[in-house]
Amino acid sequence: MDTCTTDAIQEAMSHSTKMMGVSLLKAKQQEAIISFMEGKDVFVSLPTGYGKSMIYCLLPLIFDRLKGM
To answer: Is the predicted pLDDT of residue 13 greater than 90, yes or no?
Structure first.
């Protein structure tokens, strides 16, 4: 996949969260997803119940959305 702009990543993230029935991501979730999609290495260490699993569930949807652009 070509390098995507942050705006494109945020649009894909918004679309994907709606598909999953989530209204809003937390700042740390957004930060992790954007960093990963920009090709950076990411290590996520957050408290139980913060929504780490949502990050991993959304990544394939976001990738597919960006691939289709």
So the answer is: yes
SS3 per-residue string spanning the chain: CCCCCHHHHHHHHHHHHHHCCCCCCCHHHHHHHHHHHCCCCCCCCCCCCCCHHHHHHHHHHHHHHHHCC
Distance CA 61, CA 20 (A): 9
Across 27-32, average pLDDT: 96
Q: What pLDDT shows up at residue 5?
A: 87
* Reported pTM: 0.86
C-beta of residue 33 within 8 angstroms of C-beta of residue 59: yes
Residues 6+ apart with CB under 8 A from 6: 34, 38
